[in-house]
């Protein structure tokens, strides 16, 4: 266990796309990079179904509805997984402030927020208002991308979370995770609670949970196939909870008072269990280091920032370029359309972000690293 923990400390894994922990050598683990790719594909799948208006068509056959439910149920699992990846690889850091990482992250968000806004405007695809320009030029504070804004705040808080989790012994750490789990996940899942779980607080919990996996190895964390079975089972429960509730739960006395829909689906027990099990499964998958996988994975955050950029971009992608509404009556055609749309958006997003990294980000930071300010502050 100790050897595994020490080996993990030397791994260099990007947080989101090209944002990587600083000061760590060694190759990136392709098993976690493959997980990163899968998580982003799940997120794109959800957006294709939701923004594409594919649900609720009367002519969609039962098999088509099942397909759409499966495709639209992995978004929160994808979000949870991305946060856990960051917590797992940052939790051992001793640094109090990582200015280079934060600057890279902010510039990446700004590149897509401002670049796509002005690009759509000059292409005649959207109107420009001074207030709109203000919002897109300050993407984090204006919450252009909710995930990016909350994640940026998480990165600001990460050094202090590290101080907390590194100071806790195993017993205290378990107690903390259990108490937060009861309030944030268990009760909102099984009771009709009236409070919201703040996204940032939930990200804190996922970060701490991943930190526990790394700092306090348990026997269950070495299981591969059992955790995959748990991941698949919990995903199915999460996907089909609504019809299950309507047709079965009212007849079970202990469960009839469960909410018809989870108040915050990302924090629900099945979603959390699926995220955790999927993470542990990929942690134990042995994949020979692959440059291709690592390269593709480095552009995944760019995929999110590209296709989640405002209403106009969503309409352009899902209702104009990849409009699947006319073919909802055929499950085979719907499946083919979904595969084409999901992988096309993913591929284009990765290519654009790789161009951004090599043409803009790397030259910029190579130049900054040579300046006095860069040497002093960009560590």
Describe this structure in words.
This protein is mostly helical and 379 residues long. The chain contains 17 helices and no strands. Helix 3 (62-71) runs parallel beside helix 16. The two termini are 31 Å apart. Residues 1-13 and 18-25 have low confidence and may be disordered.
Strands, helices and their partners?
Elements: H1 2-9, H2 30-51, H3 62-71, H4 75-90, H5 99-122, H6 130-137, H7 146-167, H8 170-190, H9 199-215, H10 225-239, H11 241-247, H12 269-283, H13 291-297, H14 300-307, H15 310-321, H16 331-369, H17 372-377
In short:
The protein has helices spanning 2-9, 30-51, 62-71, 75-90, 99-122, 130-137, 146-167, 170-190, 199-215, 225-239, 241-247, 269-283, 291-297, 300-307, 310-321, 331-369, 372-377. The chain is mainly alpha-helical and 379 residues long.
Mean pLDDT: 89
Rg of Cα set:
21 Å
- Rounded to the nearest angstrom, the distance between the terminal CA atoms is 31 Å
Figure out the total of helices: 17
- Strand count: 0
What is the multimeric organization of the chains shown?
Answer: single chain
C-alpha geometry: globular
- State the helical fraction: 55-70%
Low-confidence stretches: 1-13, 18-25
Class computed from helices, strands and strand pairing: mainly alpha
Percent of sequence in beta strands? under 5%
For the largest beta-sheet, the strand count, sense and barrel status come to: none
Helix-strand string = HHHHHHHHHHHHHHHHH
């Amino acid at each position: 266990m100790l050897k595994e923990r020490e080996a993990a400390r030397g791994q260099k894994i990007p947080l989101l796309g090209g944002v990587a922990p600083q000061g760590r050598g060694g190759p990136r683990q392709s098993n976690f990079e493959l997980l990163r790719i899968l998580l982003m594909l799940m997120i794109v799948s959800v957006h294709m179904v939701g923004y594409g208006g594919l649900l609720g068509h009367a002519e969609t056959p039962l098999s088509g509805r099942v397909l759409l439910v499966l495709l639209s149920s992995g978004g929160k699992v994808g979000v949870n997984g991305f946060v856990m990846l960051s917590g797992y690889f940052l939790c051992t850091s001793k640094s109090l402030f990582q200015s280079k990482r934060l600057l890279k992250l902010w510039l990446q968000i700004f590149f897509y927020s401002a670049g796509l806004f002005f690009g759509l405007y000059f292409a005649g695809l959207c109107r420009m208002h001074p207030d709109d320009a203000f919002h897109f030029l300050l993407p984090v504070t204006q919450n252009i991308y909710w995930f990016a804004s909350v994640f940026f705040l998480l990165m600001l808080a990460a050094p202090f979370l590290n101080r907390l989790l590194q100071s806790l012994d195993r017993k205290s750490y378990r107690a903390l995770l259990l108490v937060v789990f009861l309030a944030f996940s268990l009760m909102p899942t099984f009771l009709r609670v009236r409070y919201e779980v703040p996204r940032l607080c939930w990200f804190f919990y996922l970060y701490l949970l991943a930190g526990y996996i790394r700092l306090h190895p348990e026997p269950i964390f070495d299981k591969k196939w059992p955790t995959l079975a748990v991941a698949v089972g919990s995903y199915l429960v999460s996907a089909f909870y609504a019809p299950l509730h309507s047709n079965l739960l009212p007849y079970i006395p202990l469960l009839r008072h469960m909410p018809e829909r989870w108040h915050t689906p990302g924090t629900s027990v099945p979603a959390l269990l699926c995220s955790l099990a999927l993470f542990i499964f990929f942690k134990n998958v042995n994949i020979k280091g692959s440059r291709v996988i690592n390269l593709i994975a480095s552009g995944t955050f760019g995929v999110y920032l590209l296709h989640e950029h405002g209403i106009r971009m969503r309409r352009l992608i899902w209702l104009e370029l990849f409009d699947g509404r006319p073919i909802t009556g055929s499950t085979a055609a719907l499946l083919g359309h979904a595969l084409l749309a999901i992988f096309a958006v993913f591929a284009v997003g990765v290519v654009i972000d790789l161009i951004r990294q090599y043409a803009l980000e790397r030259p910029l930071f190579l130049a900054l690293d040579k300046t006095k300010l860069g040497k002093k502050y960009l560590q």
